Amino acid sequence: MEMLAPNIYEELQGPGQFINILVDESWNIPLRRPMSIAGANRDQLTIIYKVLGRGTKRLVTKLRGDFLNILGPIGNIFNQDKFNNHHPILIGGGIGIAPILWLHNVMKGGSFQHELIIGAKSKSDHFLKHQPSRKIYLTTDDGTLGIKGTVMRVLQQVVNQLYEPMIVACGPAEMLKVIQTFLIDINIPGQMALESYMACGLGICQGCVVELTHSHQEKHSFGEKFSLICRDGPVYDISRVRF
To answer: Which of 27, 100, 197, 243 could serve as 92's disulfide partner, Cβ 3.0–4.6 Å?
Structure first.
């Protein structure tokens, strides 16, 4: 879905940020839906979503010329300065591909060498082409498109072929946890954008809490042990989150 949002566009910092959409002005669906921004160009924002519940079903009914109540931009961004002296591998899974695609297009426009790995359950969930020659790898759980299996199958192969790789990922928590364990074991840095249910998007409702990693000896306050994805994220160092 593309939407004209000049005021939000002017405040955008980059890939990783999201918007919070009120899909219905009535009290039938009172909570906003957080949507990662998948692209931004000339006052327009792009989002990618899958119809899963009442909110997204209502979003599908929107037509050209309709208005949406949008809060944003929210959150921090992928730290591209950390890509210096590294070869980024971008990984997106499921509906978590939006910020990864935005980052991919930004880097592609700047001729920044990188790999792109996108995973899905089946061919019907993909809309890109599997192009290994262009460093775009698609995976499917059922093998109907690209490489059969999860994104880990490609990641394990690609990592061994690159000098100073760095991972940037977004997707389901299960996927991020496996990637995190893999990277920590082989001492490779990375960043990840977390997905979460949230109501306000401002840090008031406390609905998007994530626990941070700490050593047993480390003393910390409550605010240092836990983080709010909407306020402090959604982008974190890949080693900082406890799943």
So the answer is: 100
Question: Distance between alpha carbon 99 and the CA centroid of its chain, in Å?
Answer: 4
* Residue labelled with tokens 């047993």: 216
Burial class (CB in 10 A: 0-12, 13-18, 19+), 61: exposed
SS3 137: strand
pLDDT digits (tens, 9 = 90+) for 34-60: 999 999 998 999 999 989 889 999 999
Which residues make Cβ contacts (< 8 Å) with residue 10, sequence separation at least 6?
none
User: 241-242 and 209-212: which strand pairing?
Assistant: antiparallel
Range 2-74 has CATH code 2.40.30.10: yes
Domain ranges of the chain: 2-74
